[in-house]
Amino acid sequence: MTSLFNTSHKITHESERMDQQFIIPFISLLQQSSNECVSWITFFFCVIFILSSMRLFGIVGLYAYSVLATITANIQVLKVVNFSFSPEPVALGTIIFATVFLVSDIITEHYGKEAAQKGVWLSFVMQIFMTIFMLLTIGHPPLASDIVYHSAIETLFLPSPRLLIASLTAFALSQLFEIHIFYKLQVATSGKMLWLRTNVSSIIAALLDNIIFSTIAWVILAPVPVSLKSLVFTYILCTYLARVIVSLLSTPIIYLSYKCLPKND
User: Which terminus of the chain faces fewer neighbouring Cβ atoms within 10 Å, N or C?
Assistant: First the structure.
């Protein structure tokens, strides 16, 4: 028993030392950079994760990325930062969530419309399951020594019903719409002009997503609805510009996806 305790203590000590030597300096370096720079880094890693997941695991890897990115973006949205292009603070999650639309395009391109729709519903259901699991976690009464961690988990995972409803509704409708537009353009262009269907479907769907989410969350279900001006300029257009940029930058990624198909696909 003593040996087990000593081993556990040693592992904890090593973990804390790693935090001090690597993790904290890395975070400090990022915080000294501009928010735009950190967003570029985020997008770069998203691209690496998407293409490597596809290469290693095929459509299963893309499904896994889509689920992970959806859950991550819904956690990130709790934090707001300032960007030079926006007069108002912008909620994070935009970059990662925008790549979910890229993944839907990649799946539609290589595996078909039905496979992409299955990915949407998989992400939708997994988001609900994650919420239920974390509610059950919060349901355990905290110990006095654990109150700080319990409060942190509550802050991150205790959902506002209106935000959850708005998020899931906007996600499902915009994703299905995006897949439909991409597929229709794919048929209309006989599989050519990949750049056109990628950008048109993503840009239109992103605007639809912003409109649905913002209208439900900040007007329909909000205790005090925001003004029309705030709805349009603060909640819809501020993040939409970032999503358009991500969509344009994603164009070469979907071409690269042809190089990353597993050998058996």
Answer: N
